[in-house]
Predict the structure.
Amino acid sequence: MAQVIIDNISNSLGSFLEGKYYSKIVVLVDEHTKKFCYPIVKSNLPNHKLITIKSGEHNKTIATCQSIWEQMTNFELDRHSLLINLGGGVIGDMGGFCAATYKRGIDFIQIPTTLLSQVDASVGGKLGIDFLGFKNHIGVFSLPNAVLIDAFFLQTLPKNELRSGFAEIIKHCLIRDKNKWNEIKVKDLINQDLADLIKHSVEIKKAVVAEDPTEKGLRKILNFGHTLGHAIETFYLDKGKKRLLHGEAIAAGMIMESYLAFEKKMIDEKTFLDIEEFLFTVYGRVEIDQIDFENILALTQQDKKNKGKIVRAAIIDGIGSCQYDVSLSKKEMLRALQYYKGI
Ligand SMILES: NC(=O)c1ccc[n+]([C@@H]2O[C@H](COP(=O)([O-])OP(=O)(O)OC[C@H]3O[C@@H](n4cnc5c(N)ncnc54)[C@H](O)[C@@H]3O)[C@@H](O)[C@H]2O)c1
Ligand SMILES: [Zn+2]
C-alpha cells in the first residue's frame, strides 16, 4: 500500500525526499495547477523540470501521454528519476500511467489538488486514460511511491469541482459508515469539516483496497453509484455544454442505484428517501432526455465490473453496508432512469 501523508505539503514533501537521491525530478501540471499549486511545491523542491499539459478530461488521452513521454525522453529521464503529479485525477491517472510505463516504470508521487483526487483517485493504484470515448479504458494498476495530501490546495478549487469530490465522500459514508452519514446528511457542503472528511475517506478507501487490491471482490463496493453514473458521465463526455463532472454523474448514479436497492428490498423506503433527498439537495437533478436512455443503457455494457453480458453493480443493503456483483437487468436500469427523471 502506498504511503499516504496528510499534512502541510512542505512537511510531507520534505520528509518524502529526505535521504533519497533522484537523478532527475519532473513535475507534471496543467495550466490551473501550474498557476495555483506549483508555486507552493516549487519552493519545496530541489532542481527540477516542469511538464505542462492542457487541463480537462478530454485531454486524458494517448496523444497527451505521447507528449509527456516525449518530454520525459527529451529531459533524458532515466530509471532513477521521479515524476511528481501535481493536479486532479486527470493528472494523477495519466501522469501515473506515463510514469508506470516509461522505461517499464519509474518512481512517481501523487500530490492531488482537487477534493475528488484527494479522497478517491489518489488511493488504490488505478492509473490510465480514456480511449475511443470509453472512460479509463486503457490502464494499469501501479502504486505511487507516496501520496501527499494537503487540503490547503482546495482553496482555489472552483465550487462545482469541490461539490464533485464531495460525492465520493458521500459514497464512502453510504457504503461503510452509518455514523458519518448521519453527521454529513444534516449539513450543507460549506458547513462540512472537509479536513476530517478527507482523512475519513482515505481511511475507508485504503482499508477496502488493502483487503482486495486488484478488485476481485470487496473493492467493487467502491463502485456504488458508478454503474449508471459512469454510463451517464460517458454519454455526456462529448456533449459540450451538457458535460457533467464525475461526482455530479456519480451523485445521479447513487440515487438510481439506491432506488434499485429499494426496489430489491435491500433498503427500506425511509432510507432511500433520505439518500435521495440529500443528493437532490446538494446536486439538483441532471437533465437526461428520455430519447437518450437506450444509449446510456448500452454504455453500461462496457462497464469493467461486468462478467460477459451481465451488468453487475455494487448496491447498498443498508447505510454503511454494500453488496457487490449484484446483477442488474436492462429493465431494472431503465426503471431507475425513469424514476430519476420522474416519469
Ligand atoms: N484512479 C482512480 O481510482 C480514480 C478514482 C476516481 C476518479 N478518477 C479519475 O479522476 C478524474 C477526475 O478528477 P478531478 O475531478 O480531480 O478532475 P481534473 O483532474 O480534471 O481537475 C478538475 C479541474 O480542476 C483544476 N484544478 C485542479 N486542482 C486545482 C486547484 N487546487 N485549484 C484550482 N483548480 C484546480 C484542474 O486543472 C481541472 O481544470 C477522472 O478522469 C476520473 O476517471 C480516478
Ligand atoms: Zn468515482
In short: Residues 3-155 form a domain with the Rossmann fold fold (CATH 3.40.50.1970).
